[in-house]
Amino acid sequence: MTALERLPVDQGQQVVLGISQETEVRWFRTRVAGRESDLVWLDAPLENGSPIIPRAGADVVVHTWRSTDAYYTLHSELLAIDDSDPPRLGLRVRETERVQRREYFRVEVSLDTEGSVVIESASEEQSLELSLRDLSTSGMRALSTVLLLGGEELRVKLPLPGESGSFDLRAKVIRIIADIEQSPYACHFGAQFIDVPPGVRERMIRFTLGVQQERLRLGQV
Predict the structure, then answer these.
(1) Which of 218, 217, 190, 199 has its CA nearest to residue 106?
(2) What pTM was estimated for this model as a whole?
(3) 165-180: average pLDDT
(4) Is the previous residue joined to 86 through a cis bond, with omega within 30 degrees of 0?
């Protein structure tokens, strides 16, 4: 078992908590309230203003992450309940799974870029529109209205549902998946993001976790 000190479970860390309820696992966003010996304390998640508190001894799952490292699944047991305000759940971690960031934080999306995206190539800058098909903190797969070349650099205005405005990102085309003859798109490509600011990366992680959480709720993963 991985030592707690090596896991992203510091006070204030955002996590996703999975609680078995009848025939399904329900997922809730919450945060780490503290760490004590071999226990991780979480704020009890709220639903319609009321705390969700599993029975003592229940098996629960915690998803947590470190944006510069990886994603972790913590298989845990609820050992203690603190009736503070808000209530806290004391979990003992029994087993951990570590998944590399790129492997987990890639989700299927359908996002159109807001405004124009500019190509920085050997010839000239050119405006284009993108339709994203999958997204991670490290890169994207998308359709482009302009035929791209491997190695070209893009400036992307990335919209994320739930966020106001869009994020200005740089990306490098690393592969052309296919040329597309039908309008309005000219090619299907993959690109890697360049120097994503930490604050933007955290927002992207929260977005992809939200997509994963909804897919888990619907039984799609």
Answers:
(1) 190
(2) 0.56
(3) 88
(4) yes
